[in-house]
Amino acid sequence: MIRLTFALALSALLWTTDPSEAQTLLNDVEMAHVAVTASNIDIAYAHLALALSQNDDVRAFAEIMIRDHSAVNAQVVALAKALNVTAKDNAVSQQLIRDATSITSELTRLRGAAFDAFYVRNELAYHRAVNTLVADTFIPNSANADVKRAFQSALPIFRGHERHAGQLASRLTPGMGGR
């Protein structure tokens, strides 16, 4: 079973009973660091998929992940430069990295259809968590209008990734139905 560590880490650290409290937990440069960290992790998973998967659909999805997440990261770096700020490491980013190490370890042990199914289910869960975080926490709590717009422009891309991962998951793991 897929570990939903990303979602659990974020819910433990960010999702509070009062969404306005999220701003006191992470500021804009910390939120940007989480976004870049999450994208870098997804890029690493995609490179692993390109190295281990023989499934053309999984490989095509991985290439899209690399392309889109690299582009979003470039936009975040350009925005940080324009705003003359440096992304700030934080507990959420650190937890994401720890969790990614565990997931990567699980992925590297798998081959064939088992790898493909785990990879796309993880991508589905990962993007669901990212989309919820961006929509419900980062966008409403961004203090800077440019940072808010960056999250707003990235969200449709990430939602597209979630839909694509759901379609792949339903084909690779019957009975999942993209959920």
Structure explained in plain terms:
The chain has 179 residues and is mainly alpha-helical. The chain contains seven helices and no strands. It has helices spanning 5-13, 22-25, 28-52, 56-83, 91-109, 112-141, 145-172. Helix 3 packs parallel to helix 5 (91-109), helix 3 runs antiparallel to helix 6 and helix 4 packs antiparallel against helix 7. It is elongated, with a radius of gyration of 16 Å.
Topology of helices and strands:
Blueprint: H1 5-13, H2 22-25, H3 28-52, H4 56-83, H5 91-109, H6 112-141, H7 145-172
Helix pairs in contact: 1-5, 3-4, 3-5, 3-6, 4-7, 6-7
Cα-to-Cα separation, first versus last residue: 14 Å
**What is the succession of H and E elements?**
HHHHHHH
Number of helices: 7
What is the average per-residue confidence, as pLDDT, rounded to a whole number?
86
Radius of gyration: 16 Å
| Sheet with most strands | none
Record field, number of beta strands:
0
Low-pLDDT runs of 5+ residues are 1-23
What portion of residues is helical?
over 70%
Structural class: mainly alpha
SS strand fraction: under 5%
User: Could you say which overall geometry the principal axes of the C-alpha atoms support?
Assistant: elongated
